[in-house]
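Good morning,

Attaching, inline, the backbone tokens for the sequence recovery test we're adding to the shared suite. The designed sequence is right after.
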């Protein structure tokens, strides 16, 4: 394999950068192309059929154009809906991102876990299955928090986060039966760890936050074991669907992560 063949990280927006950050910890030299489907953002309010068609179509075209050695769908919404289908149609290994219910179940002491995701993610059978496999004896309280996606996108562009958006997530979970006992929060959307400080302030130090980024990074490193990767000389690439103006404001966040300027897909 060409040593410069990249890992393709895909998300609807900047959320997958939380997976990218974890990946750089374990594979700092790996060439990465990060693709943000800004023209399709947000996925959370779309139907299953819309998300599946969009993700499978885009990843097929991106696989042809970029010839990645591995694709990571760094998006819970896309993964819980389209992972199986994408794996069936592409020959390249595909790693998904699914809600970190298993580690949360191992961590909770009260047995009550809050799960915050997009509207589309929290209704998936994939999540029901994770719950019955790993947290059948726990109470799992799920809520959709679409406003957090926009807040995370804005924060990475240097804009202030509206505290009301964060407080609303806390208040809705706390108001659910048993909600006061939540001691573990699953951030089931890759955008949400970008707001972990704000969430920690709202929920307090007694509530642990869990997401899948480190686990996914380790999984990718494991799958690529033994492969030679080009020592990064060129910057990693950040591509977006839709107009390039969608990436305006991200310059500092991208430069800090070793990306060149945003490119149009
Ligand atoms: N980052 C995505 C996820 O992990 C979803 C954001 C969106 O609604 O597009 O679920």
């Amino acid at each position: 394999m060409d040593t410069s063949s990249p890992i393709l990280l895909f998300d609807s927006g900047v959320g997958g950068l939380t997976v990218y950050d974890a990946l750089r910890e374990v594979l700092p030299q790996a060439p990465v192309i990060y693709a943000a489907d800004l023209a399709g953002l947000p996925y959370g309010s779309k139907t299953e059929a819309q998300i599946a068609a969009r993700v499978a179509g885009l990843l097929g075209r991106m696989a042809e154009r970029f010839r990645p050695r591995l694709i990571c769908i760094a998006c819970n919404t896309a993964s819980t809906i389209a992972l199986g289908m994408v794996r069936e149609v592409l020959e390249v290994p595909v790693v998904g991102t699914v809600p970190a219910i298993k580690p949360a179940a191992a961590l909770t002491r009260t047995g009550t876990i809050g799960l915050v995701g997009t509207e589309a993610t929290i209704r998936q059978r994939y999540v029901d299955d994770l719950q019955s496999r790993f947290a059948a004896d726990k109470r799992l309280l799920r809520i959709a928090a679409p406003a957090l996606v926009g807040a995370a996108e804005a924060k990475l562009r240097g804009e202030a986060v509206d505290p009301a958006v964060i407080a609303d997530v806390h208040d809705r979970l706390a108001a659910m039966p048993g909600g006061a006992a939540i001691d573990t929060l699953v951030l089931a959307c890759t955008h949400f760890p970008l707001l972990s400080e704000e969430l920690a302030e709202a929920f307090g130090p007694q509530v642990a936050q869990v997401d899948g980024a480190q686990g996914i990074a380790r999984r990718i490193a494991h799958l690529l074991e033994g492969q030679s990767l080009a020592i990064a000389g060129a910057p990693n690439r950040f591509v977006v669907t839709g107009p390039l103006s969608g990436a305006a404001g991200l310059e500092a966040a991208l430069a800090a992560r070793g990306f060149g300027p945003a490119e149009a897909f």
